[in-house]
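Today's session is about reading a structure prediction critically. Students often jump straight to the picture, but the first step is always the sequence itself: look for stretches that repeat, for charged clusters, for runs of hydrophobic residues. Only then move on to the predicted structure, which in these notes is written as discrete structure tokens rather than atom positions. Here is the chain we will use throughout the hour.
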Amino acid sequence: MAFPPQPETRFVPEAAPVHSRHSHGLEQFASQLQEGEAQFILDLGGASQANVGFVTSLGHRLYSEDFPRLLEGTFGARDGAAAQEISPASIDDFLRQNLEFPEAHFDGALLWDSLEFLDPPLLRAVVARLHRITKPGAHLLAFFHADERAASLPVYSYQILDAVTLRLVPRGTRRQVHVFNNRAVERLFEEFRSVKFFLARDNLREVIVRR
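Below is the predicted structure for this chain, in token form.
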């Protein structure tokens, strides 16, 4: 499968190395891909040959959206919550243009860290849309940083190397908009069936959400 050239990121460059890490959240998400018929999976991290190859090798289909770039393209490149002081009509337009899928279409979703940088109205609307477009029983994998003192957070492209290993490719940094402790994450996904947490040594909280 060929991918179109990707535009240059407008995130602030970060002098952080590409590195790999074990992911308990990915391990559990991948275990759901081993079962049953062909599934439709949504990836909000953008087109990645590694992710496409992993999912399709298991007999499933992957649909990719580069969510950070979609946000920047719609609401501008300004950093932080101020960039998203937007009207309900603008939120509706954004969802209609970028997350307009049939109800109960996806069997799973790779959200990565895409929800961390949204202001509350847009965040609530995106999570509600994810609830609508995923099937009952679908699993969603999301990442939230657990460092409450950090002024800015690293942004990564997440590439699946195997069922338990991710390669993290730095895309820069963005200002921390929210502090997502466990209770805040549970409230965010209160319409979903369950939320399970994995806290890694690098302060990256991995979350498996079941629709």
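Discussion point for the tutorial: The radius of gyration is 16 Å.
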